[in-house]
Amino acid sequence: MNAVSKRPVIISTDPGIDDAVAIAIATSSEKLDVKLICPIAGNVSLEKTTLNTQKILTFFGKSIPIVPGSVKPLLRPLHDASGVHGKTGMDGYPFPEPSLFPENNITAAQSMHKVVTESNEKTTIIGIGPLTDIALFIHQYPNDLDKIENLVLMGGSLGRGNFGVLSEFNFGNDPEAAKMVFQSGLKIKVAPMEVGRQAKIMPTTSEKIKSFGKVGDMFYQLFSKYRGGSFKIGLNMYDALAVALILAPEIFDITDTHISIETQGTLTSGASLIDLKGYLNQADNAKVAISVDTKAFEAWFVDAIKKTI
Protein backbone atom coordinates (compact mmCIF):
# COMPACT_ATOMS: atom_id res chain seq x y z
CA MET A 1 0.00 0.00 0.00
CA ASN A 2 1.51 3.35 -0.97
CA ALA A 3 1.61 6.50 1.13
CA VAL A 4 -1.18 8.14 -0.89
CA SER A 5 -3.71 5.52 0.20
CA LYS A 6 -2.74 5.59 3.86
CA ARG A 7 -5.00 7.25 6.42
CA PRO A 8 -3.42 10.45 7.81
CA VAL A 9 -3.14 10.27 11.60
CA ILE A 10 -2.19 12.51 14.53
CA ILE A 11 -1.37 10.89 17.88
CA SER A 12 -1.76 12.65 21.25
CA THR A 13 0.01 10.50 23.82
CA ASP A 14 1.71 10.32 27.23
CA PRO A 15 4.24 7.44 26.97
CA GLY A 16 3.94 5.26 29.13
CA ILE A 17 4.75 1.67 28.26
CA ASP A 18 1.42 0.78 26.63
CA ASP A 19 1.57 4.11 24.72
CA ALA A 20 4.98 3.06 23.37
CA VAL A 21 3.43 -0.15 22.06
CA ALA A 22 0.57 1.77 20.42
CA ILE A 23 3.01 4.24 18.80
CA ALA A 24 5.17 1.39 17.48
CA ILE A 25 2.16 -0.38 15.95
CA ALA A 26 0.64 2.76 14.43
CA THR A 27 3.89 4.00 12.90
CA SER A 28 4.62 0.58 11.39
CA SER A 29 1.17 0.00 9.89
CA GLU A 30 0.86 -0.03 6.12
CA LYS A 31 -2.61 1.52 6.54
CA LEU A 32 -1.69 4.56 8.65
CA ASP A 33 0.42 7.61 7.86
CA VAL A 34 1.35 9.15 11.22
CA LYS A 35 1.92 12.81 10.42
CA LEU A 36 2.48 14.14 13.93
CA ILE A 37 2.94 12.98 17.52
CA CYS A 38 2.11 15.36 20.36
CA PRO A 39 3.33 14.13 23.75
CA ILE A 40 1.39 15.44 26.74
CA ALA A 41 1.83 15.28 30.51
CA GLY A 42 -0.06 12.33 31.94
CA ASN A 43 1.55 9.04 32.88
CA VAL A 44 4.66 11.11 33.65
CA SER A 45 5.68 14.75 33.15
CA LEU A 46 5.73 16.42 29.72
CA GLU A 47 9.53 16.47 29.75
CA LYS A 48 9.57 12.69 30.23
CA THR A 49 6.76 11.87 27.77
CA THR A 50 8.53 13.99 25.15
CA LEU A 51 11.84 12.19 25.73
CA ASN A 52 10.07 8.82 25.63
CA THR A 53 8.49 9.74 22.29
CA GLN A 54 11.94 10.65 20.98
CA LYS A 55 13.33 7.35 22.25
CA ILE A 56 10.68 5.11 20.71
CA LEU A 57 10.78 6.86 17.32
CA THR A 58 14.58 6.80 17.27
CA PHE A 59 14.55 3.09 18.16
CA PHE A 60 12.28 2.31 15.22
CA GLY A 61 13.95 4.78 12.87
CA LYS A 62 10.78 6.81 12.31
CA SER A 63 11.24 10.46 11.35
CA ILE A 64 7.91 11.90 12.50
CA PRO A 65 7.45 15.46 13.81
CA ILE A 66 7.20 15.66 17.61
CA VAL A 67 5.47 18.73 19.06
CA PRO A 68 5.14 18.78 22.87
CA GLY A 69 1.75 19.70 24.27
CA SER A 70 0.36 20.68 27.65
CA VAL A 71 2.30 20.44 30.91
CA LYS A 72 -0.90 20.06 32.95
CA PRO A 73 -4.69 19.83 32.62
CA LEU A 74 -6.77 22.88 31.70
CA LEU A 75 -7.91 23.70 35.25
CA ARG A 76 -6.49 21.06 37.57
CA PRO A 77 -3.14 19.87 38.89
CA LEU A 78 -1.49 16.94 37.15
CA HIS A 79 -1.66 13.51 38.80
CA ASP A 80 0.73 11.12 37.07
CA ALA A 81 0.82 7.31 36.86
CA SER A 82 4.52 6.72 37.51
CA GLY A 83 3.51 3.98 39.94
CA VAL A 84 2.33 1.95 36.95
CA HIS A 85 4.90 2.97 34.33
CA GLY A 86 7.97 3.70 36.47
CA LYS A 87 9.70 7.01 37.19
CA THR A 88 10.69 7.66 33.58
CA GLY A 89 7.50 6.23 32.09
CA MET A 90 9.47 3.65 30.08
CA ASP A 91 11.69 1.99 32.65
CA GLY A 92 13.35 -1.30 31.81
CA TYR A 93 15.23 -0.86 28.53
CA PRO A 94 18.46 1.04 27.69
CA PHE A 95 17.24 3.01 24.68
CA PRO A 96 19.86 4.65 22.44
CA GLU A 97 20.30 8.41 22.63
CA PRO A 98 17.53 10.09 20.61
CA SER A 99 18.41 11.33 17.13
CA LEU A 100 15.00 12.94 16.64
CA PHE A 101 14.13 16.14 18.47
CA PRO A 102 10.93 18.03 19.32
CA GLU A 103 9.75 21.22 17.70
CA ASN A 104 9.30 23.80 20.45
CA ASN A 105 8.38 26.86 18.38
CA ILE A 106 4.74 25.82 17.88
CA THR A 107 1.98 24.53 20.16
CA ALA A 108 0.40 21.10 19.84
CA ALA A 109 -2.93 22.65 18.81
CA GLN A 110 -1.22 24.79 16.15
CA SER A 111 0.65 21.77 14.80
CA MET A 112 -2.58 19.73 14.65
CA HIS A 113 -4.21 22.58 12.73
CA LYS A 114 -1.30 22.66 10.29
CA VAL A 115 -1.49 18.92 9.60
CA VAL A 116 -5.28 18.91 9.25
CA THR A 117 -5.46 21.90 6.89
CA GLU A 118 -2.57 20.73 4.70
CA SER A 119 -3.96 17.21 4.26
CA ASN A 120 -5.82 16.24 1.08
CA GLU A 121 -7.80 13.70 3.10
CA LYS A 122 -9.65 13.88 6.38
CA THR A 123 -7.38 13.25 9.37
CA THR A 124 -7.91 10.79 12.20
CA ILE A 125 -6.78 11.86 15.68
CA ILE A 126 -5.80 9.14 18.14
CA GLY A 127 -5.98 10.18 21.80
CA ILE A 128 -4.24 7.82 24.23
CA GLY A 129 -3.55 10.27 27.06
CA PRO A 130 -5.40 13.10 28.77
CA LEU A 131 -7.45 15.06 26.24
CA THR A 132 -6.13 18.56 27.01
CA ASP A 133 -4.43 19.23 23.68
CA ILE A 134 -7.25 17.77 21.60
CA ALA A 135 -9.70 20.01 23.48
CA LEU A 136 -7.49 23.06 22.85
CA PHE A 137 -7.36 22.20 19.14
CA ILE A 138 -11.16 21.86 19.02
CA HIS A 139 -11.59 25.16 20.86
CA GLN A 140 -9.08 27.16 18.84
CA TYR A 141 -9.78 25.77 15.37
CA PRO A 142 -13.53 25.08 15.05
CA ASN A 143 -13.33 25.47 11.27
CA ASP A 144 -11.05 22.43 11.14
CA LEU A 145 -13.61 20.03 12.56
CA ASP A 146 -15.15 19.09 9.22
CA LYS A 147 -11.66 17.97 8.13
CA ILE A 148 -11.47 15.38 10.95
CA GLU A 149 -12.47 11.84 9.98
CA ASN A 150 -12.90 10.84 13.62
CA LEU A 151 -11.34 10.81 17.06
CA VAL A 152 -10.30 7.40 18.35
CA LEU A 153 -9.75 7.37 22.09
CA MET A 154 -8.67 5.05 24.86
CA GLY A 155 -10.37 6.26 28.00
CA GLY A 156 -13.36 6.31 30.25
CA SER A 157 -14.92 3.43 32.10
CA LEU A 158 -18.15 1.51 31.86
CA GLY A 159 -18.33 1.29 35.65
CA ARG A 160 -15.72 1.80 38.37
CA GLY A 161 -12.49 3.71 37.77
CA ASN A 162 -8.73 3.47 38.17
CA PHE A 163 -8.16 7.19 38.87
CA GLY A 164 -11.11 7.89 41.14
CA VAL A 165 -13.95 5.70 42.34
CA LEU A 166 -15.81 6.28 39.07
CA SER A 167 -13.14 7.90 36.86
CA GLU A 168 -10.58 6.45 34.47
CA PHE A 169 -7.08 8.01 34.26
CA ASN A 170 -7.11 9.62 30.80
CA PHE A 171 -10.53 11.25 31.13
CA GLY A 172 -10.29 11.82 34.88
CA ASN A 173 -6.99 13.71 34.66
CA ASP A 174 -8.63 16.50 32.68
CA PRO A 175 -12.43 16.15 32.83
CA GLU A 176 -13.03 19.66 31.46
CA ALA A 177 -11.06 18.74 28.34
CA ALA A 178 -12.89 15.43 28.01
CA LYS A 179 -16.23 17.24 28.30
CA MET A 180 -15.23 19.63 25.50
CA VAL A 181 -14.25 16.71 23.29
CA PHE A 182 -17.54 14.86 23.74
CA GLN A 183 -19.52 18.04 23.13
CA SER A 184 -17.61 18.80 19.91
CA GLY A 185 -19.91 16.98 17.50
CA LEU A 186 -16.98 15.02 16.06
CA LYS A 187 -17.30 11.33 15.25
CA ILE A 188 -15.73 9.57 18.24
CA LYS A 189 -14.77 5.95 18.87
CA VAL A 190 -13.85 4.90 22.41
CA ALA A 191 -12.18 1.87 23.97
CA PRO A 192 -12.92 2.14 27.71
CA MET A 193 -10.80 0.82 30.57
CA GLU A 194 -12.68 -2.46 31.03
CA VAL A 195 -12.00 -3.49 27.45
CA GLY A 196 -8.31 -2.85 28.11
CA ARG A 197 -8.54 -5.28 30.99
CA GLN A 198 -10.08 -7.87 28.68
CA ALA A 199 -7.32 -7.33 26.09
CA LYS A 200 -4.59 -9.06 28.07
CA ILE A 201 -1.27 -10.20 26.68
CA MET A 202 -0.88 -13.55 28.38
CA PRO A 203 2.47 -15.14 29.39
CA THR A 204 2.73 -17.36 26.30
CA THR A 205 2.24 -14.32 24.07
CA SER A 206 4.86 -12.30 25.95
CA GLU A 207 7.30 -15.16 25.45
CA LYS A 208 6.47 -15.27 21.74
CA ILE A 209 7.11 -11.52 21.43
CA LYS A 210 10.40 -11.95 23.31
CA SER A 211 11.67 -14.03 20.38
CA PHE A 212 11.24 -11.16 17.89
CA GLY A 213 14.90 -10.11 17.98
CA LYS A 214 15.86 -6.62 19.15
CA VAL A 215 12.25 -5.37 19.04
CA GLY A 216 10.98 -8.33 21.03
CA ASP A 217 13.71 -7.91 23.63
CA MET A 218 12.86 -4.21 24.01
CA PHE A 219 9.15 -4.82 24.50
CA TYR A 220 9.74 -7.77 26.82
CA GLN A 221 12.01 -5.67 29.04
CA LEU A 222 9.47 -2.84 29.14
CA PHE A 223 6.70 -5.32 29.97
CA SER A 224 8.79 -6.62 32.88
CA LYS A 225 8.53 -3.17 34.53
CA TYR A 226 4.90 -2.49 33.63
CA ARG A 227 2.38 -2.62 36.45
CA GLY A 228 -0.73 -2.78 34.29
CA GLY A 229 -1.19 -6.43 35.21
CA SER A 230 1.78 -8.81 35.31
CA PHE A 231 3.52 -11.53 33.33
CA LYS A 232 1.78 -14.10 35.51
CA ILE A 233 -1.83 -12.94 35.09
CA GLY A 234 -1.48 -11.06 31.81
CA LEU A 235 -0.61 -7.48 30.82
CA ASN A 236 -3.33 -4.94 30.05
CA MET A 237 -2.63 -3.30 26.67
CA TYR A 238 -4.98 -0.36 27.06
CA ASP A 239 -3.65 2.11 24.50
CA ALA A 240 -3.07 -0.39 21.70
CA LEU A 241 -6.86 -0.76 21.68
CA ALA A 242 -7.24 2.68 20.08
CA VAL A 243 -5.08 1.56 17.17
CA ALA A 244 -6.95 -1.75 16.99
CA LEU A 245 -10.26 0.14 16.75
CA ILE A 246 -8.96 1.57 13.47
CA LEU A 247 -7.11 -1.43 12.06
CA ALA A 248 -9.22 -4.34 13.37
CA PRO A 249 -12.69 -3.03 14.35
CA GLU A 250 -14.19 -6.46 13.67
CA ILE A 251 -12.69 -7.88 16.89
CA PHE A 252 -14.81 -5.55 19.05
CA ASP A 253 -18.45 -5.44 20.07
CA ILE A 254 -19.25 -1.78 19.39
CA THR A 255 -22.40 0.16 20.23
CA ASP A 256 -23.63 3.70 19.60
CA THR A 257 -24.39 5.62 22.77
CA HIS A 258 -24.10 8.95 24.57
CA ILE A 259 -21.13 9.83 26.78
CA SER A 260 -21.25 12.70 29.27
CA ILE A 261 -18.33 13.73 31.48
CA GLU A 262 -18.95 14.81 35.08
CA THR A 263 -16.99 17.95 35.99
CA GLN A 264 -18.90 19.31 39.01
CA GLY A 265 -19.22 16.36 41.36
CA THR A 266 -17.22 16.64 44.58
CA LEU A 267 -16.63 12.88 44.64
CA THR A 268 -17.39 11.92 41.03
CA SER A 269 -15.55 14.52 38.94
CA GLY A 270 -14.02 12.91 35.87
CA ALA A 271 -16.57 10.10 35.70
CA SER A 272 -17.53 9.14 32.16
CA LEU A 273 -21.24 8.40 31.99
CA ILE A 274 -21.43 5.88 29.16
CA ASP A 275 -25.21 5.76 28.85
CA LEU A 276 -25.78 2.26 27.50
CA LYS A 277 -29.42 2.19 28.68
CA GLY A 278 -30.47 5.67 27.56
CA TYR A 279 -31.12 7.17 31.00
CA LEU A 280 -29.90 10.61 29.93
CA ASN A 281 -32.20 10.84 26.88
CA GLN A 282 -29.38 12.40 24.87
CA ALA A 283 -28.43 11.81 21.24
CA ASP A 284 -25.62 9.34 20.58
CA ASN A 285 -22.22 11.07 20.41
CA ALA A 286 -19.83 8.11 20.37
CA LYS A 287 -19.27 4.55 19.27
CA VAL A 288 -18.10 2.58 22.30
CA ALA A 289 -16.40 -0.80 22.43
CA ILE A 290 -18.04 -2.77 25.21
CA SER A 291 -16.03 -5.96 24.72
CA VAL A 292 -13.23 -7.45 22.63
CA ASP A 293 -12.56 -10.95 21.33
CA THR A 294 -9.52 -11.69 23.50
CA LYS A 295 -8.04 -14.42 21.30
CA ALA A 296 -8.48 -12.30 18.18
CA PHE A 297 -6.87 -9.34 19.95
CA GLU A 298 -3.82 -11.36 20.97
CA ALA A 299 -3.43 -12.68 17.42
CA TRP A 300 -3.75 -9.16 15.99
CA PHE A 301 -1.32 -7.81 18.59
CA VAL A 302 1.39 -10.36 17.84
CA ASP A 303 1.02 -9.77 14.11
CA ALA A 304 1.15 -5.99 14.61
CA ILE A 305 4.32 -6.26 16.70
CA LYS A 306 5.91 -8.44 13.98
CA LYS A 307 5.29 -5.63 11.50
CA THR A 308 7.39 -3.26 13.62
CA ILE A 309 10.52 -5.35 13.13
TrEMBL record:
* UniProt cross-references to CDD domains, sorted A to Z: nuc_hydro_IU_UC_XIUA
Q: What is its EC number?
A: 3.2.2.1
Q: Does the keyword Nucleotide-binding apply?
A: no
SUPFAM superfamilies linked to this entry: Nucleoside hydrolase
Recorded hits in InterPro entries, A to Z, give: Inosine/uridine_hydrolase_dom, IUNH, Ribo_hydro-like
Stored PANTHER family: INOSINE-URIDINE PREFERRING NUCLEOSIDE HYDROLASE, NON-SPECIFIC RIBONUCLEOSIDE HYDROLASE RIHC
Report the protein name in the record. Inosine-uridine preferring nucleoside hydrolase
Organism per entry: Paucilactobacillus wasatchensis
What high-level taxonomic lineage is stated for the organism?
Answer: Bacteria, Bacillati, Bacillota, Bacilli, Lactobacillales
